[in-house]
Amino acid sequence: MIRGSKQREAILRVLGSGTSHPTAKWIYTEVRKEIPNVSLGTVYRNLRSLKERGEILELYLGGTFSRFDGNSTDHYHFRCERCGRVFDVDEPVNKEIDVRVAQKTGFKVLSHHLEFRGICADCQKGNMNA
Ligand SMILES: [Zn+2]
Ligand SMILES: [Zn+2]
User: Fold this and answer.
1) What is the pLDDT of residues 36-57, one digit of tens each?
2) Residue 26 Cα, ligand 2 centroid: separation in angstroms?
3) CATH classification of 5-124 is 1.10.730.10, yes or no?
4) Distance from the CA of 127 to the center of ligand 2, in angstroms?
């Protein structure tokens, strides 16, 4: 797995540099600043393998594009309805819901996704460019 590690490192750096939960396209644009000849396909391939190895998360949010998260531990998100940014929510994941749903349905619950929606602090201040 030596080949392609330079791209992988660049992707992880891009993902770790903010809390923006970027799309693959945005990651590609950023990685290209470091590695000009990288292709979108290579970025997708690396994102997939990083996801399989549990180093990053692919988020299933109510948007057109999947977004990626450099924080691979289970956590909740808040989406701003005005600027579309996705934030991490510092709130422990509620495992009780899994147990309750499992008891009610008889299903084996592995995880759940919870997305908070509203207006972020910047947008409440009327600062659209933040
Ligand atoms: Zn906002
Ligand atoms: Zn996150």
Assistant:
1) 999 999 999 999 999 999 999 8
2) 16
3) no
4) 22
